[in-house]
């Protein structure tokens, strides 16, 4: 019996959640038969179950609602606003009761069921002249029953079970890592390694699928706001339309819980502060009904949630005045802010724009809490607004809480993790760094800018291995834009960490956001960077002052000093590369590196990138760290054999030879990789030269096109586009031998070997073809 | 009500804990400290892919900290996993938990976590509430 009740509660909850949006839509268009049917089905189900379980109050309510809706279905009554309100009230009460049943307690809701039922009753007056729609079939399940058959086959399973499976898979991955170490230690051999690789690939797939299983369409979250918008709009007397655009975006269910509150607040704000009253809107030449739009897009590992309104917008000048009045910053600082930074002032603690405190937005969380919530685990909030035309708030959140790219640092003999999104730069201890005390706070001078810095060990109350001057500094950027240096004994590793919640008493220290398990199975606490900054004495006041410093950061004092990433190459030599060219640092599996087929390439995001710094025979490991370099248009990758670090490079000390450039870093001669050479070399030319060939010809498409592409051409189809090389094939279907005007070099290919055929090549004369392709490209470049 | 109880030794005293709350008994290998956390939190340990917060049970009771950190009870509380350090795990018993008789006097730390007494073959044992232990001393800044 308990199982049955649990099923009932679960079903009722799900239906209620799905109905939220439907109800409001139904109110707007009461003739919408499908929505009416959905609501009817719900109360019908509840009624049926109540009789079975003996919940008389619930039964009375659902029965009365069913009756009222049944009248509407028959066309005997119209769904007017009082009826919708009454139905909503009943559904709320049913929701409360369902929760009570679940908790196994007495019904706690009010005892005015009769009033609710009375509200459902038809007003006596409009009986006669109610327009009567065509009565339809009286099948209690309505037309919707036909739709059920077409739905995807799904099973319902408890979240706890899913979580158990997820942790089981994590266990297996850890056990797999252990196994891998054992195999390495035993020197591999036999088919062991191959079997292990197979298992490990399966596990990776499994983990991806199981993570997907935890994803929920974000539309579920979005439609739960429909009711809020409706109620708020009614309460404030501001009619608004609420548009949702979420596409297929899915989000981890843990993340949903984290964004629920901030979004709620932003929507409230949009209606309360953003949208003007109807009169004001008309006076401003806008439609009387305001519009609010909630949208979601996935970009890479992030989801962008936008809340847009067409209200009065945010008055930048007013915001700045208020901020100055509130002592958040000085007028002089304010002048240096960009428009976006000015709007961001509304997120400063102690700021409020509401001229009059309204019932809704004047209480509870403010914008500072919204931003804090969004940034807790690597998200961000940005604000855009046009005065008079509306505002847009964009919440960027990671796709999942579970996996966060991080670096791990060591201090006092213990390892801690830092979400990589905060990390600006890593500065190795070096004698050239200047530390000094400014206003009781240690600062380090980096490229002409003072950065406050402190020792992580001091904040944590542990014993560091060396004083701050000898430590590695991790430069971290806070949401406010301020940058500070965190001294640690050393950098351990970088990679994607699975972050899990940890005991509230540990979170309560304000220094940690969770815990992660490292590759060796040990636990590492993940630092709460904002908490650490506060504990380290980076007060909010200093952070605000930093605004102006950031603006001035572009003017680097010593132009000859550049930061470089240094690492050990696969050839065993230490190398350096200018940080400006580095897009990011990633770790790839050995399987993603294609060696032995011409130039080494890296498989990334489904495409191929030229990979430098590695030759065949170098690959003796499973994971390779790779630097992604970007020249603004293209990317190339550079493989590293060992740890990364950063250092300031004095370009004046660079010695250029034909073989390469050497710079002095900490007294050591290091090869400086010239990015220009990387991008101009070999396969890096891909995508530059264009070639058109008759793709209608099967041989061209299947045989020739791959060869052309392999030689670095981009194949174009558009017959009107200008191309560097035009390939014509003898007797190809539908193509005359006429050479288009916009062609560069023309190459003719024949199907049979011909003697003395000037300017044409037999199609299987591979050497001649390749030479011709390369010549055409070289000619183009010259 | 008679429920299975686990008899363990904490700070030299024998106590009983509800056995159905204890997932397993583990041997603690390595404890990673959690700097700045309340003193009764010994740190973190891992059990396969789970991370457990290690509670120094004696300190949570306001007694001097445990000198042996060998065994721990794995307990779940409010969605988080904990490992409660005990000196020893002795036995399983069952019996009815009765309110503390007035003539039994408890030391300050124990009073807070006491659920009642249970009569076993080994004599009267104090039954403790695990969640209260996990919540720690009321003034945990004492650490």
Quick description:
With 782 residues, chain A is α+β, with helices and mostly antiparallel strands. Helices cover 37% and strands 27% of the residues of chain A. In chain B, the strands form 2 sheets. In chain B, strands 1-2-10-9-8 form a 5-stranded mixed beta barrel. A 5-stranded mixed sheet of chain B has the order 3-6-7-5-4.
Structural class of chain A: alpha+beta
Helix content of chain A: 25-40%
CATH topology of the largest domain in chain A: OB fold (Dihydrolipoamide Acetyltransferase, E2P)
Question: Could you say which structural class the secondary elements and strand pairing of chain B correspond to?
Answer: mainly beta
Biggest chain pair interface: A-B, 30 and 25 residues
Strand segment tally of chain A:
35
The number of E-state strands of chain B comes to 10
**Distance between the terminal alpha carbons of chain A, to the nearest Å?**
84 Å
Uncertain parts of chain B: none
- Strands of the widest sheet of chain A, in order across it, are 10-14-15-13-12-11
| Strands ordered across the widest β-sheet of chain B | 1-2-10-9-8
Which overall shape of chain B is indicated by the principal axes computed on the Cα atoms?
Answer: globular
CATH topology-level name of chain B: OB fold (Dihydrolipoamide Acetyltransferase, E2P)
The quaternary state of the protein chains shown equals: heterodimer
CATH architecture of chain B: Beta Barrel
The proportion of strand residues of chain A reads 25-35%
User: Per CATH, which architecture of the largest domain in chain A?
Assistant: Beta Barrel
Number of separate helices of chain A:
23
Q: What do you see in this structure?
A:
- The complex is a heterodimer of chains A (782) and B (143).
- With 782 residues, chain A is of the alpha+beta class.
- Chain A has 23 helices and 35 strands.
- In chain A, the strands form seven sheets. In chain A, strands 10-14-15-13-12-11 form a six-stranded mixed β-sheet.
- Chain A is globular and about 95 Å long.
- Chain B has one domain (2-135): Beta Barrel (OB fold (Dihydrolipoamide Acetyltransferase, E2P)), CATH 2.40.50.180.
- A five-stranded mixed barrel of chain B has the order 1-2-10-9-8. Chain B has a five-stranded mixed β-sheet with strand order 3-6-7-5-4.
- Chain B is globular.
- Chain B contains three helices and ten strands; from the N terminus they run E-E-E-E-E-H-E-E-E-H-E-E-H.
- The model of chain B has no long low-confidence stretch (mean pLDDT 85).
- At the A-B interface, helix 7, helix 18, strand 17 and strand 18 of A face strand 4 and strand 5 of B.
